[in-house]
């Protein structure tokens, strides 16, 4: 699971929280009576998790193409380099173990209270950003759409420096209001529907705004988190313990007893957001590579997208068969990398795929700035 925050490539440590079912939850809690899901409830829960995982990947990838060309600072993506990718699993591991110790030493109630406030703010902003394109389409044309600006400066006169310069309009305020209602609902009730709304928003924003600069970087990132995920799930109980103790919308959940108890259901299958966002940013990169080919084909995007479906489906099959929480990246990483590589080999475009380089907006802007300055000198 990941806490995707605009302007940062950091991730919370539950980056590969295992796919888990209700029986695993009971085992962790040490309860005597296990919940036994019906076949219908299990199929509904697993199917819903797969659908919820696919939605932010598909739409986030499409939106990543637009964000890569955006000139709006709030929509500009952050580019992950190979150095960032190599350090990512190490930082995530340290943070994961640190959280594990926190939950062992300090009261879980107080830690989760602080986390709830933190994710309350982040969730509102993420959900508001997610809703913005939809609001632009449905906002009535006859209603006034007023423009606003939030400006904080430091100093005065010629030394005045902008700290915050945020422009928004009436549509943004409506999105913020709706998101705030969901936020209050989540803080007060911790309802699984509110959790999923925030989780989907985090995932979509992550896929949209976190960009890999090339395929090699994607392979380094996925490969490192593959090892990270397997070690912390199979090698220790740290990952599963933190996932269960961590009350924050950084996992997608769906009840296996929904048919019996409705919205009050409480026995969940869960999927960490890291298992959505990490493969998702790689799939989004391949979509942007498809666009760069300019042949109106989305071969690599659809290949990797269906590879993700295959990998997640195989994860669910293994988990259901062995009745044990599974590190989803163990199956997702080989599928999401292997399938597109095979297609590239068949099409003779493997070299071209690995040579594809995506620069950050700042890097792309710098040559123009240098040219402007040289023109001024002339």
| Low-pLDDT stretches | 1-14, 25-32, 361-374
- Tally of extended strands? 6
Q: Mind summarizing the main beta sheet?
A: 2 strands, parallel
Helix content: 55-70%
Class based on secondary structure composition and strand pairing: mainly alpha
Indicate the proportion of strand residues: 5-15%
What best-fitting shape do the alpha-carbon axes yield?
globular
Indicate the mean pLDDT: 83
User: Can you count the helices?
Assistant: 14
Order of helices and strands: HHEHHEEHHEHHEHEHHHHH
Radius of gyration equals 22 Å
Distance between the termini: 53 Å
The largest beta-sheet arranges its strands as 1-4
How is this structure best described in words?
It is built from 14 helices and six strands. α7 packs antiparallel against α10. It is mostly helical and 378 residues long. The longest helix is centred in the N-terminal third of the chain and has 31 residues, at 108-138. The protein has a two-stranded parallel ribbon with strand order 1-4.
